[in-house]
Each structure stands twice: as C-alpha cells, then as structure tokens.
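Folds abound. Consider this:
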Amino acid sequence: MAAPKKGRSASAQSKPGRSLALILIAIVGLTGGMFVSGHTTPRLGIDLAGGTSITLEAKADQGSAINKANMDTAVDIMNRRVNGLGVSEAEVQTQGDRNIIVNIPKGTNSAEARKQVGTTAKLYFRPVLAQEATGSAAPSPSASPSGSSSASPNPSASASAKGEKATSSSSPSASATSQGRAVTDALKADSTPSASASTKAKTSPSPSASASGGAASAGAAALQAKYAALDCTDPEVRRKVAEGVKPEDTTVACGEIDKVWYKYLLGPAAVDGTDVKKAAAVFDTQGAAGWQVTMTFTKSGGKKFADITGKLAQNQQPQNEFGIVLDGDVVSSPFVQGAITGGQAQISGSFKQEEAQGLANMLSYGALPLTFKEQSTTTVTAALGGDQLHAGLLAGAIGLALVVIYLVAYYRGLALVALASLLVSAALTYVLMALLGPAIGFALNLPAVCGAIVAIGITADSFIVYFERVRDEIREGRTLRPAVERAWPRARRTILVSDFVSFLAAAVLFVVTVGKVQGFAFTLGLTTVLDVVVVFFFTKPLMTLIARRKFFANGHKWSGLDPKSLGAQPPLRRTRRPGGPVAGPVETKEA
C-alpha cells in the first residue's frame, strides 16, 4: 500500500505549476470579463452611493383591511420583487400604520423598481367578446404571440414596441347594426363562448347603443355605451377603467400595440392569478419568439385553463381569444385552436429581457394584499455613508497591517506565501463583486464591507493552520519537502471543516435575514468559498515550489522553517538490529 501513495505524492509534488496556472487563468479571464462588461467597480449600496427613496401609502382594496398582517405581507412581497436574489440591497420597510418606504440604491433601474413595488399584479384570464383600435386606425396585421406551446400564432395580431403588451386586432367589417347585435348576443351569453355562427363570424365589432333583433337589458346597454365611449388614448380614462370591477363582472379594458391603444369587451374571469403556480422568463432558442414568460398553473388552475380554452376554440375571431389582464391592462390576447392542457402556458410578444423578467417576477411573487399609491419620491445622498465607508476602510487597513506585522514577525519568510495568497484572494473578491453587480444585482454596502474585513481573518487562519502543520513535521525531524506533503492532508481536513462552519453560518444568516444584513452574509459566504479555492489552488502549490528552494529547504533562520529555532528532533534514521531486519523510524503519534 506504500508504493501507490508515494506515486501520488511524487506526482502532486512535480506538477504544482498546473494549479498555479489554472488560478492565474481564472483571474485573467474574470478580469477580462470585468473590463469587457464595462463594470470595473463594484456597485455600491444606497448607504454608500445614494439612490432613490419611494414612499407608498396603502389603500384598502375591495374590503382588504389595512392591518399589520397585510402590511407585513406587502413588505415581504415587495422585498422579494426588488431584491430578486436578495443581494441588490434595496430596503423595504414600514413607516407608521399605512406607509411603506422603499430605498433603491444608485445603479438600479429605479423606474422598473417603482413599477415592481407598486404593482398589485392581479392577473385574470377573460374571454374576449369584442375589440377595436381607438384614437387611430388599426395597424397592419403582423405575427401574434402564442398563448401556450399548443396555441397557434394569431395572424392578425401585432406586438408592441415596448414588448410589454401584445394583443390581436383586425379591422371592422360589419355594419353598425350587425356589430351591435354581435355584442348584444355575446352579453346575453354571459361571456360563455357559445354564440351563434353568424355572431362568431363578426370580427372587431363596434357596439351601438341600440341593438337590433331584440331589446338589450339595461346593464348590457350601459356596458355597450361604456365600450362605445371608451377612449384608451386618454391616460386618465385608462386609470379609471378598471376601478370597482369584480372578477365575475363583464367589463371593458385597454391594451397597447405598437403605440396604438385598443379597447376590449371582456367576459367574467375564467382563471385568476392565484391559479398560477410559478412564472419564469425564458428565451426561445428554437424560434423567433424571443423572450417569453412561461406560466405553470396549479392542478385546479390547469383544469380551468383547459376548460376555457376548449370552449373558446369552438368560436371564431375575436371570440376564440382570451385576454390576459394584468392590473386592468390587456397584456396579450392570443387565440386558441384547441384545449391547452398540461397546466402550462406562455405570454410572448417581443419582450425585452428585463421586461419579461419583471412580469415573471410579479406573477411569481403574487399579488399585493393592498393597493398602494405613490406619495413621494426623493433622492438620497451618500455623504454620511461616504464618511462611514472611509472609517470602515481605515479600520480594515489597520487590521490588515496588524495581520501582516504578525505574519512577518512570527513566520518571517513564510509570510511571503501568506501575503501572496491574501492578494490573490483580494483580487478574486474584487473582480467577482464587480461582475455580480450587473449579474445578480449585488450592491456593496457597509455591512458587506464588514464581511470582507472579517474574511481577512478567516483566510489568514487557513494559512496559519497549514504553516503550523508543516512546522510540526519539521519538529519531528523531517526535511521541508516531505513535511509539506505530509502536513497537507491533516491541514486540509481542518481548513475544510473550519470553512464549512463559516459558510454554514453565512448561509443561515442570509436565509433568515433581509436587507443589509444579507449583504454581510453574502460577502462572508463568498469570501469563505474563495478561501478554499485559494488555499487549494495557490497556497499549497506555492508551498510545494518554495520547498525546492535552498533558502527554505535548508531552514534559513529567516525562512520561518529553521529546525533549530523550532526545536526539531534529530533527523530520523533507519537502524539495523543485530541479526535482524532493518528497523523503521519511530514516529511520534498524534493524539
């Protein structure tokens, strides 16, 4: 069993350059990526760089009470929306009984964040009864988004330039009388897609106050009048169009396509947002759909979705479409050719990546229990944070200087290995922080700076564990090269256990806390992982290389490995007993 171990040890000693080259390539590659991306400095949190502070006031929504439970739920949802992975350092907290304060650091898309925190994200799937352009002529037809993987594209639809809205449209082709009859029949059917064939054949009807073929009810007539008078180009009209509308009501709504607004007559909600289990933004690599929002329904939601799409598929345009209504706006109105089963659907329409991710984010984290009105938006300066950062960096520099003085005084030549390892760890930490800003929204705040300073001690501790193991081997009488290799397995176990405990503490802290404390936990966990990488791929190979240098191998008094200074035992020698086999050296056993 001894021969294989020697073979592996010899191989490990002979190729330390590979590990050093690997970590050097990683540093160069990450640094190159940092410069190519244009983000050469870490993104700073609101306490260091300033940002935007938004004050939101809660409004009771259809009977929802403004109480502590609902406010806490709203804070939790907003926090998850704007923080994403939890490290973008946006702060969400209550102020008094009715207000929520949202602090967004500089460098974040504040407009998108404002939309994220204030949007209730109430989602409904409603059958389309009628639709037409308002304010201008309908645009020329183009490709339409698909409602699901099994729904066919609508040849008469178009997507908006912003990519947030997608709907279908077609030019009216029926007379006012027939249009009014089509809408009246649809209303009589109570939004159930079972109108007559002649009714189904009508596209984009424009309802009239008077209906032929029978008198409409007062409610239907009022709704027809509201639809006829609806001007979706007016922002004030769009803001009020969904006020007081219940899911079971037949209603009107607006949607935008290529900067042209369309009005819709929609039936009662067949599926609502609570039936959506999760949503995600994905890129269509197989076709030309681009970014899409995929939705997975709950078991009951998938059944309801299959039922409504199955009924709609029996109709003709536009009554074979369902409007996807988000907070009163129609974001898409795809048509279906058959029941969409499987519990999954898609929303597409020339989304940009951030728009698709924002919509998926709101749908994934659910609707706010209350409606919020933006009271004020102010700009936050970073004067106080800058002073605190200066004091924190000064404290970190002093601490690092004390660590360096200790290493030089106690380990002498070995301090060069420790300092080189600290520099490599610092370089990796800086580059990763710079890259993680645009990648996951990481923002460096004061607690994160504290986490990086604490990491100096964790990293130095790993070096000390290894150095002391090597010195113990020398005290037992071994030369440096075998001492380096024999000390590594024992030191490796200790380092891994120590770093695992630190990483576990950081992970628990990250999960159970919010806001700035998560920045401390994230930085501590990141630097702990980097400590393992540096020790395995830099410190150990570097020790193997310096063990071949006479200055260290011969135990110079300034090398930190002088056997005489360490109180080493005489060199281990093999002895032969009289008349017996060669006796091996007697080694000191470890407790």
